[in-house]
Amino acid sequence: MNNIRNFSIIAHIDHGKSTLSDRLIQAADVISERQFHDQVLDTMDIERERGITIKSQTICLPWKTKDGRTYFLNLIDTPGHVDFSYEVSRALASCEGALLLIDASQGVEAQTLANLYLALEHDLEIIPVINKIDLPSADIERVKGQIAEDLGLDPETALLVSAKEGIGIDTVFEAIINRLPPPKGDPEAPLKGLIFDSHYDAFRGTVVHFRVFDGTLRAGETIRFMSNRAAYKVEEVGYFQLERIPQKQLSAGHVGYLIAGIKTVSDTRSGDTITHRDRPCEKPMPGFKEAKPVVFSSIYPVASDGYEDLAAALEKLKLNDASLIYEKDTSAALGFGFRCGFLGLLHLEVVQERLEREYDLSLILTAPSVRYRLHLSDGSIVVVDNPTMYPDPKDIIGAEEPFIRSTIYTPERYMGAIMQLCLERRGINKTYQYLTSDRLEMVFDLPLAEVIYDFYDRLKSITQGYGSFDYELLDYRDTDLVKVDILLNGERVDALSMLVHREKAEQRARRACEKLREEIPRQMFKIAIQGAIGGKVIARTTVSAFRKDVTAKCYGGDVTRKRKLLEKQKKGKKRMKMVGKVQVPQSAFLSVLRTDSE
Q1: pLDDT in tens, 79-100
Q2: H-helix or E-strand spanning residue 410
Q3: d(CA 496, CA 520)
Q4: Which of 331, 366, 401 is where one domain is finished?
Q5: Of 217, 207, 286, the residue nearest 253 (C-alpha)
Q6: CATH code, domain with 138
Q7: Is 149 helix (H, G, I), strand (E, B) or coil?
């Protein structure tokens, strides 16, 4: 076990985590030059395009030191976004140390700090690494000052590297071996292993990624998952080197995989404990919890005959993404679809893109919403995330919505603009403090419903990309909630209904009406588009009618002839409106939803 090191790389988005992983893999000769490509651990197209890690990977790097000893360094990669913070915490629980990566030009940002606190919670040894030292804008002394002031770490221990150019990679390996502690554990004790990830293999079933803390696991033994008491016979164990390398056994301190004919990924929950069925360990690893969705949206196929394809695609996607939950849903306007729960807005976007790309589907998503708690007059509490399930307003005596605590790091010059943005979104300013002479940490309590639309995009634009944002869920607080309905010629369109705070109802309704007016084609009669709370109309626009020039054939003569023709036309339009049905194009639904994300 003295020759094993288990470590992770943690960083803010775009600080070069995947590039550093690439250089470490190349230096350890795990992959040939011919097979190598950039971001080798990122297996999805979306990850490469957006420069983010969604599905974490694990790899065992053999490294030979100058004195001839071979060490096995297990890199447990972590997702980089706040939506996946639970998976990050489970991966960190499987490590003894972490490389904290900081961009030499950007400096310490929101998720750098959030990830550092996560690592310190697990008592990990931290090695600060300053990356991108080759950039013309790199300011190493300033970043060292931030490491001392913001992070409370010794800046003199920071490693200087350029992952892109391959500078300083050997010093990273030396630091991992010399400064990170080897794993502890007893290979003879009852088996205790922590699941930190899993993925689905079409031929072998679920492949479980896990770290052995105590005991030894061999192929052919029967294991049990402690959260759901399910027992399985192990077919194969081994470790990862981009491909699976089977081994006879994995003992205390090792990180690897097991295959046991498990049919679904949802049986293997991240954070669960593995033990032997016949000789179980005393208690499971601490920190296990169910992944809870916080953002909800309905997904419908653009063409109604695409429902079966969507159902099959969601079933396959669920095999690789245990945190996605969905149930059948129906809408009078959009037909059959699914109501889905997501870990956050990025998770929603990733699922949507994967469905469209990997399964070639055209989709419509309803406006994202959060879970509200409603207190009814009969004393019961109902949880509502879908506007169509909203009860009769006269039965509701109170409503609560989820709040988050957001931490924003920004240069001082953007303080006023950020204050204004957060107060517009019903934010409560908790505290702010200067980290350095020109950098601020601002803490706000914000309603989650105000953040899930365009908050992050607005923050990035008003801070010219320098502001960074991180959040954690807090609690539920009282709110004044109303349901806004959109009416076309007096008929309610259920797919466009939304739950909003009363203060924002008129603004959101007016914006939806304006967008619909641009998208709905003109008819031979006027179309009234209204936003209403119950029976009270709060916004209205009108799609004006086409008008045939019925007086064109009148040349000369008395004006009463023209009047008579116009009156006749007016009566015809009135009758047409009584029987006229409005066809709403798919683009109209998309445009209304896009107003919330633009």
Answers
A1: 766 666 677 777 788 888 888 8
A2: strand 396-411
A3: 14
A4: 366
A5: 217
A6: 3.40.50.300
A7: helix
